[in-house]
Amino acid sequence: MKATMDKLVNLCKGRGIIYPGSEIYGGMGNTWDYGPVGVEIKNNIKRAWWKRFVQESENSYGVDAAILMNSRVWEASGHTTSFSDPKMDCKFCKTRHRADNLIEAHSKGKVNPDTMTNEEMEAYIREHHVTCPKCGKSDFTPIRTFNLMFETSRGVTEEGQNTIYLRPETAQGEFVNFLNVQRTTRAKVPFGIGQIGKAFRNEITPGNFIFRTIEFEQMEHQWFCKKGTDGEWYDYFKKAAWDFLVDLGFDPEHLRYKDHDKLAHYAKAACDIQYLFPIGWSELNGIHNRTDYDLSRHAEFSGKNMEYTDPVTGEKYVPYVIEYSIGADRLMLAALTEAYDEETLDNGETRVVMHFNPAIAAYKAAVLPLQKNLSEGARALYKKLSKSFMCTYDEAGSIGKRYRRQDEIGTPFCVTVDFDTEKDNTVTVRDRDSMEQIRISADKLEEYIAEKIKF
Ligand code: GAP
């Protein structure tokens, strides 16, 4: 793989994919804004996920729940008490770190802090003289736990304000709507609820571009099934999550399963699919067997009966849940990493090219007049194609330079309008990956492109 984080950050900034957040004010740590190209890619990623896990799954339904939820939701889910990271401050330079990250970095991944208690982590850091990544000293405060939920308040007067939270995961919006969805769709267990939306976490050590941010989007799918079938469905979603990535174009050599050593408070089994990011093997998505924990807790805290009644046997039970969760931004970073390539051309020049699956490329085609005096016909073609796909138009600079610009953002097809177009209504179509060109009738273009961008 040829991508480094620096190369990706520079390319993204220079080509309108992702910019640093609030940049003209000096930025705002670990926030990023998607530009004109980036927003298209991310939307396409979300669309591909939705198509696979909601549209094509006969028994799955979508929701778009509120970000701000009744605070009792987070008490029921356990987030107000258990959603925290072990933080330590460097006494010398006052920077804040996660104890588990310090241990992982120091041991180069050989020691797994997930299986350690806070006391064991403190002892390890002391005994191995783990140093502060900022100043190199080894003098830390004891571990304190730090809740990751962002708080805000709701109320009209200062006195009457209630603390509410920006949701740290979208999943709870699916759980609290379990009965609504089941009743309104008359869904029979097993069935799924999928959602895409923003989540917020006051991460102590965010970073690595869009890998870990404080505001991000999640694509989550909860599969409600009967206890006893949960193991089977867990395996099913492990495979479905893997297949989705491979179908998007990921090399299986760059993916691996990793079982969790320490299970979250709600989980019976959990694993990640890791991807070989420029920072090394790291979590891309998670598959969790959440048992009946969430629905049972919401039943307890809300006082509402969350049982499902089997329409055939009349049996009542609280379903188990298999969750598949993936960050849209993290998948975007993985897709950028996977797509990035530098090729040496016959003339010795280097071409940077993003080999995205055409389904997620920002623009499906770039329409390029060979010369400016062909722009009228080229613009008309661009307008026509834009009714069917996201396209771009470029008449600035040599045709070679325009091809390079499109290669760098991964546009799968460059359509050139030349003097023959005026005579016989044909255009050349250049393939991004092979750089080969074919000549086809402009009337066949839509059909040609539609076939290639199917997912
Ligand atoms: N509902 C379960 C849940 O939220 P998680 O493992 O904490 O599980 C799921 O998060 C996915 O969300 C991760 O695999 C990752 O892709 C993404 N994610 C989590 N925290 C993130 C962050 N701070 N920035 C970007 N993506 C994040």
Structural write-up:
GO terms for molecular function: ATP binding; bis(5'-nucleosyl)-tetraphosphatase (asymmetrical) activity; catalytic activity, acting on a protein; glycine-tRNA ligase activity; transferase activity. Catalyzes the attachment of glycine to tRNA(Gly). Residues 6-369 form the Aminoacyl-transfer RNA synthetases class-II family profile domain. By secondary structure, the protein is an alpha+beta fold. Helices cover 33% and strands 27% of the residues. It contains 15 helices and 23 strands. It has helices at 5-14, 36-55, 71-77, 79-82, 99-106, 118-127, 171-175, 178-185, 230-247, 293-302, 328-339, 375-386, 399-409, 419-424, 445-452; strands at 18-20, 32-34, 60-62, 84-89, 96-98, 144-147, 151-154, 162-165, 191-200, 215-225, 255-259, 269-277, 280-291, 308-309, 316-317, 320-327, 340-344, 350-354, 365-369, 391-393, 413-417, 426-431, 437-441. The strands form 7 sheets. Strands 3-9-10-16-13-12-11 form a 7-stranded mixed beta sheet, with helices on both faces. β7 (151-154) and β8 (162-165) form a beta hairpin. α3 (71-77) crosses α10 (293-302) and α5 (99-106) packs across α6. The longest helix has 20 residues, at 36-55. It is globular, with a radius of gyration of 25 Å. The two termini are 24 Å apart. The model has no long low-confidence stretch (mean pLDDT 95). Glycyl-adenosine-5'-phosphate is lined by residues 169, 171, 201, 203, 212-213, 216, 218, 220, 283-286, 323, 325-327, 329-330.
